[in-house]
């Protein structure tokens, strides 16, 4: 989301001050150096044969690289493009310029072509800045302008506002030009302008007669307002999930199981055993952590619709892959039964973590459902 700043009366731009650009460069550089340090430390742990430390450092380094890339892409939205939005006396005006290519585009929606305006809600998460203090959600306004072009085609234009005083000026400007203004309490944070072509009629809207109905704008809430999705949005989301499962997650899950089979067949028989368990000096801890993370990702534990028995099935499948590998290795070398017992302990440990992670996601969604029901 591009942050727009109020430059003057009802005119907004994505331009940021020079000191902010300089601060972005410093922050990105420092974070990138921390990521490079994590990779160097991971290499040191590999040299010292500290597998767990190496995995953790490399994982931290990868996360930091991803975060740095996202920050660079975010800063480019303010440095590579000029975006201006303004509610003028003749209508809603937008201007866009690609600074590198020089391409420019401007567009005006006259008030006469606006059929109606809907003030919906959207939320923005703000971190508290402290690890022991949760953040909060700021309730903002999403202005949805329904308009008709010269060919009779209906389209939608969006503009977000976080200031209640600015919102009052926008609403009064619409009223001055006799544009009907409605409002809805639904959170449309995930909806784009294209989504309203098929789903606008599904929004619960009420004619706005007083600014008191918008008193929640600019307030803070501990929990997010439930996200609204149209029927078409839900359908497309289900299609994306199915496509991702087919293209990414199912092959990844198969790769995880194949890796566990090969590890059990070619590597586990050479691991040391102490008191019927793999000791900390063995690679079992690193393999267990990587297995849990891989299963959580490949089986999409974060999705709301996942069945309660998924972690139990995954634990059984992991155990099957391990035992299959050990039984295959037993075809050409003796494998003491104690290895099967040690693997069973490792798999049950992994299963415990899988169930815990799964329940955490379910608890989050259950709390959201309770808050939605109480409203």
TrEMBL record:
<feature type="transmembrane region" description="Helical">
    <location>
        <begin position="52"/>
        <end position="72"/>
    </location>
</feature>
<feature type="transmembrane region" description="Helical">
    <location>
        <begin position="21"/>
        <end position="46"/>
    </location>
</feature>
<keyword id="KW-0812">Transmembrane</keyword>
<feature type="transmembrane region" description="Helical">
    <location>
        <begin position="248"/>
        <end position="270"/>
    </location>
</feature>
<keyword id="KW-1133">Transmembrane helix</keyword>
<feature type="transmembrane region" description="Helical">
    <location>
        <begin position="338"/>
        <end position="365"/>
    </location>
</feature>
<feature type="transmembrane region" description="Helical">
    <location>
        <begin position="282"/>
        <end position="302"/>
    </location>
</feature>
<protein>
    <recommendedName>
        <fullName>DUF2207 domain-containing protein</fullName>
    </recommendedName>
</protein>
<feature type="transmembrane region" description="Helical">
    <location>
        <begin position="309"/>
        <end position="332"/>
    </location>
</feature>
<keyword id="KW-0472">Membrane</keyword>
């Amino acid at each position: 989301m591009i942050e727009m700043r109020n430059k003057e009366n009802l005119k907004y731009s994505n331009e940021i001050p020079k000191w902010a650009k300089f601060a972005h460069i410093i922050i990105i550089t420092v974070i990138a150096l921390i990521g490079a340090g994590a990779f160097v430390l991971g290499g040191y742990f590999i040299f010292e044969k500290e597998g767990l430390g190496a995995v953790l450092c490399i994982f931290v380094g990868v996360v930091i690289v991803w975060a740095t890339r996202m920050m660079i892409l975010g800063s480019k939205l303010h440095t590579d493009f000029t975006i201006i939005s303004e509610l003028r006396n003749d209508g809603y005006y937008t201007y866009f310029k690609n600074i590198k290519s020089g391409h420019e585009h401007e567009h005006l929606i006259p008030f006469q072509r606006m059929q109606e305006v809907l003030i919906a809600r959207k939320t923005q998460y703000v971190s508290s800045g402290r690890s022991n203090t949760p953040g909060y959600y700021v309730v903002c306004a999403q202005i949805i302008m329904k308009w008709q072009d010269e060919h009779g085609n209906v389209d939608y234009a969006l503009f977000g506002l976080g200031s209640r005083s600015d919102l009052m000026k926008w609403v009064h400007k619409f009223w001055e030009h006799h544009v009907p203004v409605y409002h809805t309490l639904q959170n449309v944070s995930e909806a784009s302008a294209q989504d309203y072509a098929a789903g606008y009629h599904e929004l619960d809207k009420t004619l706005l007669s007083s600014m008191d109905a918008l008193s929640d704008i600019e307030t803070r809430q501990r929990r997010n307002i439930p996200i609204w999705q149209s029927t078409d949005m839900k359908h497309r989301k289900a299609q994306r999930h199915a496509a991702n499962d087919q293209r990414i997650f199912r092959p990844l899950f198969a790769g995880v199981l194949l890796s566990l089979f090969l590890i059990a067949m070619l590597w586990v028989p050479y691991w040391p055993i102490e008191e019927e368990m793999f000791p900390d000096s063995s690679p079992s801890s690193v393999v267990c952590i990587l297995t849990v993370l891989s299963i959580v990702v490949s089986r999409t534990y974060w999705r709301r619709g996942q069945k309660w028995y998924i972690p139990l099935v995954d634990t059984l499948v992991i155990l099957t892959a391990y035992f299959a590998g050990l039984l295959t290795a037993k075809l050409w070398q003796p494998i003491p039964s104690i290895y099967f017992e040690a693997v069973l302990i490792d798999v049950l440990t992994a299963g415990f973590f899988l169930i815990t992670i799964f329940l955490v996601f379910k608890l989050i969604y259950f709390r959201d459902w309770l808050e939605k029901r109480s409203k």
